[in-house]
Design brief:
Oligomer: single chain
Radius of gyration: 24 Å
Low-confidence stretches: none
Distance between the termini: 55 Å
Number of helices: 17
Mean pLDDT: 96
Helix content: 40-55%
Number of strands: 15
Shape: globular
Strand content: 5-15%
């Protein structure tokens, strides 16, 4: 099993990182470099001339990917080999088959497990198509209740595709156990005409079940039958797989992690309702096209692999701890929040796949907001702060809506793209000035992922691009990108604090948890 820091290319990259290219020097960032450092695939162009890499650095990065067997591991993942495990220690020990959820078109997957998973997904999709046809015209609103991957990805996709929503079909989301979240959504809907999709793989997620009961009680007070309004998305034979309580149940499986689940039934029911079944299929088509690209494109032209390698160069060799993902598209308002979970829950790991502590940095801190708003917020730090922040820009040549207006000789979309390109250039080359307050150091690495227009196909491909970028980085670091033990300790202790609340309400003896009791003393 490959050790990242022992790869021969690792030492060579360490040496090259002592003198990275200085993009602020005259003649460093040229039109020729921008044209040369660009790759295309699945309707996207990845422009990375403004990254601090040279041909020699890129050659060593591709050698690193070869030494780490990154492409072979992608094949193993999509083929259904057990990759979610830590050798020699108790772990989930599962296959990783979110890609099989969208292998419904040309069945290019290999491996019995992948074929079986694709068939299981196909059966749920057919069931969903029939269900959507059956309820058409009966409901105007849909509320999705879920948390983490059951909320972030689906919510980001729904918001991103607002122009493609069917007339008379609205979606809402409740994730936080904060009662204000549920009350705020319920104030916007007529429950008589509302479906509620409850998403929990285990059927036991406390926040989700609490919010479900919150709405069930409201329906009961209105004299409505909750069963006619609730749909379960859960594991087969879970406590929620109960036809006495739900109008329909759709299944999800252990081989699809929550943060990779937006193209499973976790997102399908809601997206099928608001986009129509064919609209959701276009998301699947785009994701599947990127899956195939990640699996088959040569490393030098492989969009997610190249992006992963550029990220590793910035993280492990230029020692930059954060990444800002900035979509120059208001539609992608919540997409960075999804990518925070996707990346930080996947690659925020301190041990490798043999259970040993890594001697190198792994996942960076991911954050971001849409441009151009960020230019009037955190760009000050990005341009002139003490710590360089790598940026990943996402942009589109055309807007989603056809309406635009030429004002002062340019359209709004042209102004948006002008800002995107200008920021990329400015971050790279900086500005020299004798006034230190107007001096910009430059050499802020960044790259642009550019497509023609954000539609369901493109969004599916964009989603899969980032899923595979994260997976490739995990493969190269030899960490497990598919479990999330780090979220469990806080949950366990929260249950102990909750028991203290319950005991106080019932005037019962307090459970033994002195630290929790110490905090409760601060509450009135």
């Amino acid at each position: 099993m490959t050790n990242f820091s022992k790869c021969p290319s690792f030492l060579k990259l360490k040496q090259l990182a002592h003198t990275p290219i200085d993009l602020t020097q005259p003649g460093a960032l040229t039109p020729e470099r921008i044209g040369k450092m660009a790759v295309s695939g699945v309707g996207f162009q990845l422009l990375y001339g403004s990254e601090r890499v040279t041909d020699e650095v890129l050659s060593q990065l591709f050698t690193l990917a070869h030494e780490a067997k990154a492409m072979e591991k992608m094949g193993a993942m999509q083929g259904g080999e057990v990759l979610n495990r830590i050798e020699g220690f108790e772990s989930e020990n599962r296959t990783v088959l979110h890609t099989a959820m969208r292998d419904q078109f040309d069945h290019k997957q290999s491996g019995a497990a992948a074929v079986d998973a694709a068939e299981m997904a196909g059966r749920e999709l057919h069931k969903l198509e029939r269900f959507l046809a059956k309820i058409e015209g009966k409901y105007t609103d849909l509320i999705q209740i879920g948390i983490g991957g059951s909320d972030l990805g689906p919510r980001a996709l729904a918001i991103a595709l607002q122009p493609f929503h069917k007339p008379g079909h609205r979606v809402h989301f409740i994730s936080n156990v904060d009662p204000d979240d549920a009350n705020g959504v319920l104030a916007q809907v007529d429950l008589k005409k509302t479906l509620v999709v409850v998403v929990s793989k285990s059927g036991t997620t406390l926040e989700t079940l609490t919010n479900e009961e919150f709405i069930r009680s409201r329906l009961a007070k209105m004299g409505l039958d909750p069963k006619e309004h609730f749909i379960a998305v859960t594991g087969e034979k879970s406590p929620m797989d109960n036809p006495a309580r739900y109008l329909a149940s759709f299944y999800i499986w252990d081989f699809v992690g929550g943060r990779y689940s937006a193209t499973s039934m976790v997102g399908a029911v809601m997206l099928g309702f608001v986009l129509g079944f064919k609209g959701f299929q276009e998301i699947l088509r785009g994701a599947h096209a990127m899956d195939h690209h990640a699996l088959t494109a040569k490393p030098e032209a492989n969009l997610p692999l190249l992006s992963a390698l550029l990220g590793i160069w910035n993280r492990n060799f230029l020692n930059l701890p954060t990444v800002a993902i900035i979509p120059y598209s208001q539609a992608l308002l919540r997409f960075p929040a999804h990518l925070q979970q996707l990346d930080m829950e996947s690659n925020g790991k301190r041990i490798d796949k043999t259970g040993h502590a890594t001697d190198f940095s792994t996942g960076p801190v991911i954050w971001g907001e849409p441009g151009t708003n960020g230019q009037h917020s955190f760009y000050q730090l990005i341009h002139q702060g003490t710590d360089p922040v790598p940026l990943e820009f996402v942009g589109f040549q055309k807007s989603q809506y056809p309406n635009d207006l030429e004002i002062q000789h340019s359209t709004s979309q042209e102004k948006l793209l002008s800002n995107l390109f200008a920021q990329s250039i400015a971050l790279a080359i900086g500005q020299k000035n004798s006034n230190p307050n107007k001096f910009f150091p430059g050499n802020r690495p960044n790259r642009i992922l550019l497509a023609e227009r954000l539609d369901p196909f493109t969004l599916g491909a964009l989603l899969a691009f980032y899923e595979h970028k994260v997976a490739f980085q995990g493969f190269i670091w030899n960490i497990n990108s598919f479990d999330q033990e780090g979220v469990q300790l806080g949950k366990m202790l929260a249950s102990k604090v909750l028991a203290l609340f319950s005991a106080k309400r019932q005037h019962a003896p307090l459970p033994s948890f002195p630290l929790g009791e110490a905090y409760l003393k601060f509450l009135k």
